[in-house]
């Protein structure tokens, strides 16, 4: 697996978890640990090299462990 494929798989996993929690991308841009919609769109599409800060915020917002988002 190359790096681009890794980003795509992690992005799809994040999207899957978000949808399982019944949240929209817009919901993720609200409240504590908000992630901007555009950033989330890029991460979920595999276009962004996400940061540790983004994974931390996403895991807190989705109420999962960071490893759950990276486990592909």
UniProtKB/TrEMBL annotation:
InterPro entries, per database record: Cro/C1-type_HTH (IPR001387), Lambda_DNA-bd_dom_sf (IPR010982)
Any single Pfam family the record assigns to this protein: HTH_3
GO terms, molecular function: DNA binding
Gene3D superfamilies: lambda repressor-like DNA-binding domains
Domain HTH cro/C1-type: from-to ranges: 14-69
Protein known as: XRE family transcriptional regulator
Species of origin: Leptospira idonii
